[in-house]
Design goal:
The protein contains 19 helices and no strands. With 391 residues, the protein is mainly alpha-helical. Among the domains are: 1-91, no CATH class; 121-185 and 306-390, no CATH class. Helix 1 packs antiparallel against helix 5 (71-88) and helix 7 (123-139) crosses helix 8. The protein is elongated and about 95 Å long.
């Protein structure tokens, strides 16, 4: 019993956290596979990710890349606390319901704050967010998880597509393409149907129902309904409350069942599901939802821009141009200084030695990333955008 209650959640969390990069990469591949089936294959996932998915994917496959490494532990903790409440506080039902209400409300707050689930409607947004974060990390010269994942995936793509190998400057094109997608993405009937298959909305609604059921239980245990002298006055109110709670439970079950059936229908035939949605909803409703979807994309773009210091696409382009100019000037100065130090018979000074090291790092960087002196905002950007459309 101790092993099941404590060891299983802790071991699950330990496995996911120690393989954080693999988990995130697998979820990015899962999102990419919606457009490009090659990312379902063993070759494009790499052997390491493939084997890890086969063993542990049930622990994380429902979640976004950033939440997949720990959210299952929070779910197990919630279940443990509810079971603990049911066993330990049986003698005081009001306290039991109050503690259970606290657990459910905390779970609801975490759910609506983080929105951890990756629904089919989130796949494109997840890929765009990944491209944005990888591009921002490359522009700011930081080595984030998104940057490492993109580097590994690029190496795999180049290994299986030698004719389409990209230089290091592709990241600027990917960043621009991601921003362009956010600007130009239009909500169609299919995207509206996908929006209905939202695991985060389902989880939020069911948790809210759980909060209300616990709250109604506390109301039933109050003196208003337990005092024999007062009960005769509030019998009708008691019955109405009981009917309301029963209706809430019934509607939550119907809601879950209908969405489950719609998701199965949507996965089997997305176009027909979208057609049914268009028949059952008004044009104004679809336009309202389209604005909501577009607004979520704007929030994604704003968060990414804020993390990059409030920079826009134009700011990134200008910053990259300035960076290229300053780097070229610095490399030229270091090259002259380093060549003078190497040609001299005397031991190099500290500054000369730093110049030699800087020149070496510059050559390594050029060999790894490609030339930064040619900005690919026209040719490579168009190629990357065309590739995104093709997928």
């Amino acid at each position: 019993m101790v092993v099941y209650v404590a060891a299983y959640p802790l071991l699950s969390l330990l496995v996911l956290r120690r393989n954080k990069l693999i988990v995130k990469r697998d979820q990015v591949c899962r999102a990419l596979a919606a457009r490009d089936p090659r990312y379902k294959t063993r070759e494009y996932m790499t052997e390491e990710v493939w084997l890890f998915r086969r063993k542990y994917n049930r622990l994380y496959y429902l979640f976004r890349p950033g939440k997949a490494t720990y959210w299952i532990a929070l779910i197990l903790l919630r279940k443990f606390l509810i079971a603990f409440t049911a066993l330990m506080f049986r003698s005081t039902p009001s306290y039991q319901l109050a503690f259970s209400l606290l657990v459910m409300f905390g779970a609801y707050a975490l759910q609506v704050r983080n929105l951890p689930y990756m629904s089919p409607s989130d796949y494109d947004r997840t890929v765009r967010h990944h491209l944005l974060q990888a591009g921002i990390a490359d522009t700011l010269h930081t080595r984030s998880d998104h940057w490492r994942i993109r580097e590994e995936m690029t190496a795999v793509e180049e290994a299986y597509n030698p004719g389409g190998a990209r230089t290091g400057a592709w990241r600027d094109a990917a960043l621009g393409a991601a921003f362009a997608d956010l600007e130009e993405d239009k909500a169609t009937n299919v995207s509206f149907a996908m929006f209905l298959v939202d695991y985060n909305a389902v989880e939020s609604v069911l948790l809210a129902c759980g909060v209300l059921v616990n709250l109604s239980g506390i109301m039933f245990l109050s003196n208003r309904f337990n005092d024999p002298e007062l009960m005769s006055y509030y019998t009708e109110e008691y019955d109405q409350l009981a009917i309301a709670v029963a209706t809430l439970i019934l509607l939550s079950c119907v809601y879950f069942g209908l969405l489950l059936a719609f998701e199965v229908f949507f996965m089997l035939n997305p176009e027909r599901a979208a057609w049914c949605v268009a028949l059952c909803t008004s044009r104004a409703k679809r336009e309202k939802m389209a604005k909501k979807i577009s607004g979520e994309d704007d929030k994604t773009k704003a968060r990414a821009s804020a993390r990059a210091g409030g920079k826009t696409v134009g700011d990134f382009h200008m910053e990259q141009s300035m960076l290229v100019s300053s780097r070229a000037a610095s490399d030229a100065a270091n090259a002259d200084f380093a060549s003078g130090a190497l040609e001299s018979d005397a031991l190099p000074t500290e500054k000369q030695w730093e110049a030699v090291q800087a020149q070496l790092q510059s050559k390594i960087r050029a060999a790894k990333w490609g030339s930064f002196t040619q900005m690919p905002y026209q040719g490579a950007y168009a190629a990357e955008a065309a590739g995104s459309d093709a997928h």
